[in-house]
Design brief:
The complex is a heterodimer of chains A (266) and B (331).
Chain A (H helix, E strand, L loop, with lengths): L2 E4 L2 E3 L5 E3 L4 E3 L5 E3 L1 H17 L3 E6 L5 H10 L3 E5 L9 H13 L7 E5 L10 H8 L4 E11 L2 E8 L2 E8 L2 E5 L14 H7 L2 E4 L19 E6 L8 E4 L2 H14 L8
Parallel strand pairs in A: 1-6, 1-8, 6-7, 7-13, 8-12, 9-12
Antiparallel strand pairs in A: 2-5, 3-4, 9-10, 10-11
Chain B lengths: L7 E4 L5 H21 L3 E7 L3 H9 L4 E6 L8 H15 L3 E5 L2 H13 L4 E5 L1 E4 L6 E7 L4 E6 L6 E5 L16 E3 L12 E6 L13 E5 L6 H13 L3 E4 L1 H5 L20 E5 L5 H7 L4 E6 L12 E4 L2 H15 L1
Parallel strand pairs in B: 1-2, 1-4, 2-3, 3-10, 4-9, 5-9, 12-13, 12-14, 14-15, 15-16
Antiparallel strand pairs in B: 6-7, 7-8
Helix pairs in contact in B: 3-4, 5-8
Classes of the chains: A alpha/beta (266), B alpha/beta (331).
The complex binds flavin-adenine dinucleotide (FAD) (2 copies).
Chain lengths: 266, 331
Amino acid sequence: MNIVVFIKQVPDVPNIRIDEQRMTIIREGVESIINPLDCVALQAALELREREGGRITVLSMGPPQSEEALREALAAGADKAILLTDSAFAGADTLATSHVLARAVSKLRPFPDLLLCGMQTIDSDTGHVGPQIAEELDLPQVCGVNEIHVDGDLLVLKRLSEGFLDTIRAPLPALLTVSKELCPVSDLSLGAVEAAFTQKDIIRWAAHDLGLHPDEVGLAGSATHVRKLRQPAARTGGRIVTGSPQSIVDALIRKLESMSILDEED
Amino acid sequence: MSKSFGDVWIFGDYRDYFQNRITLQLIAKGKDLAEMLNTGTTVVLLGEQVHQYAMEYVAHGANTVMVAEHPKLKEYEVETYTTLLSQWVKSYRPEIFIAGATSFGREFFPRLAKRLRTGLSADCVDLEVDPKSLLLVQTTPAFGGELLAEVVTPDRRPQMATVHPGVFRELPHNSEAVGRIIYPDVDVFPEPRVKVIRSRPPIKGKVSLEDASVVIAGGMGLRSKEQFELLYELAELLEGEVGATRPAILSGWADEERLLGQTGKSVKAKLVISIGTSGALQFTTGIQGAETVIAINRDPDAPVFRIVDLGLVADAAAVLPILIETLRRRL
Ligand SMILES: Cc1cc2nc3c(=O)[nH]c(=O)nc-3n(C[C@H](O)[C@H](O)[C@H](O)COP(=O)(O)OP(=O)(O)OC[C@H]3O[C@@H](n4cnc5c(N)ncnc54)[C@H](O)[C@@H]3O)c2cc1C
Ligand SMILES: Cc1cc2nc3c(=O)[nH]c(=O)nc-3n(C[C@H](O)[C@H](O)[C@H](O)COP(=O)(O)OP(=O)(O)OC[C@H]3O[C@@H](n4cnc5c(N)ncnc54)[C@H](O)[C@@H]3O)c2cc1C
């Protein structure tokens, strides 16, 4: 079973800081990591390869430094890594991102049996890219999968949807997006990074290698545009009360009375 | 001189109570948007025997409900729904098309947007029509909610967005409301490739945080499961529900279904009392829809105080027993 895992390099979001003047993210000093759910997808791919055989290809679209993420994936056991990098790819929305990723997949021989994405990223967090790759490649999709069983050329999957536990049957080839319940990633071994440096090369494809015109990728090929970033508005006019626990409770009770949640005491 | 616009479309998501509520919330918002564009609000509703929902959508403000009635539409199925709705969009040309960011909405809308080669924003917390450009400004959280991004789709149509449940308020049911319910022709569909063979309903009693009028939210400042459990007593006294921050849930103090915030639920309660929560944005997005927010935190500089109507600087462990005792005596 040949598997493609899509990997996005993201900033380590809990550690980001914001430049409040320019309303941008300060990336200096913030580590870049593999999007956590993409690690889950890779771990699941490694387990499937163990059982079913086949090869794992990892694909990432991003700036040249995304290579680090692919090297980590190679170190963890992926067989082949392709970096889709071109200055024309910058500023892509999910429509343009999925276009480049889908085109890269369509160049792979043989065509993969299973395509795995994270359910969403921790930075822009749309969750669009998986379904949009599936659409472009005319593949069936299932999102948020937490169990994968392979039965010949059929998949039996489980996922939670609005509290319902769905059991789903889908044919191969298919695209799945994975949730964190699929498998623990603690055992994703990243120890052999150095070995990856020497043993496996990273393939690089630019727009022209994919037969893509600059107009259909990056900002130019995008339908959406981020007009502005801002900080969420704070509520104003709040009253802050300090004092003994009893006086705090009194202030709270008065507020509940004024809201008619409590009746006034006579 | 004025340009004329297609309708504002809303995806009729109805499989359970929660999904139906988000549809009603979107109708209310859709009407605001439609008014700015001088156009109408249409709900598209796919399924089998869904007439009752069509009536309900009209009663909650829809001008038009377009219904596709067919046994093969009974189950939510991404590819079938995408094929049918992409055909409808091409024939009727809506200006805007929005859906709730439910599991199904988030799985199906990206595929539809891609087929239509148009833009989509995810899990929006606000939607407005810009009075100058008349573009839909789609406000979506980014970087774990630290920032809000304003996304626009300048040229392609429809402008599409999924919307976080609970951020808009539904209109009251009006049984006298008038609207059109139409049944366009429905093509035959190919067999779906993906099949749901079993769907087990949630086992636990559903906690309806979204509909509670009082919500007591607890965070790490409660220090222990025993302390956290006092919140249930408080909630009972105020006829409310208990919600929790992500770390409180990770500590095992409450079940996942009580999670509030960006990755959990959003409330539209009359009152939220948030106790021992620092006020991280990922959390406060879940409680900001409340009419009144009161917070108890012992740190006067806690960010949570920036969003409250009343901030109480105090040790939760000292305040909670007195508060519960006082309420007991009063009720
Ligand atoms: C603040 C901000 C707001 C944005 N808002 C929107 C918006 O509303 N609509 C929109 O269309 N775009 C938006 N974008 C652009 C969007 O972030 C990019 O298109 C991004 O490349 C992919 O989106 P995502 O991170 O949300 O991916 P998701 O769809 O959340 O990613 C899901 C999975 O797809 C795979 N994947 C995603 N990107 C890549 C990649 N580059 N290489 C390999 N695999 C990948 C991974 O497996 C990942 O886990 C926004 C960007 C920013 C910075
Ligand atoms: C991508 C992403 C998504 C996230 N989604 C969510 C989400 O959906 N929901 C969510 O809740 N979080 C979410 N988080 C986590 C979020 O960023 C915060 O870490 C979390 O909300 C903080 O929880 P807390 O307020 O309980 O804990 P803390 O931040 O530890 O705050 C505890 C507070 O209690 C106060 N305190 C301590 N002792 C006392 C006392 N005795 N009496 C009174 N006050 C006391 C402290 O002053 C402090 O302010 C997300 C994070 C990321 C990165």
